[in-house]
Specification:
two-stranded antiparallel ribbon; mainly beta; 43% strand; elongated
Length: 60
């Protein structure tokens, strides 16, 4: 079965799909702190441990 990914903000799933994923709805230039979002790998509906996404600035 294909490997997919899920991005969470807290316990809320933000996006799911094949890599690469895009988080939408953020303002251009916004600075997002490390750990605001977490990513998991999904295989056979089993999630890996959550891994914090490093800090980033939203591109315009």
């Amino acid at each position: 079965m294909a490997i997919t990914y899920r991005i969470y903000k807290g316990s809320e799933k933000v996006v799911e799909g094949a890599s690469p994923l895009t988080i939408t709805g953020l303002d251009a230039g916004a600075k997002v702190a490390a750990g605001t979002y977490h990513i998991v790998r999904v295989q056979d509906e089993k999630e890996s441990e959550k891994v914090a996404i490093p800090a980033f600035t939203v591109q315009s």
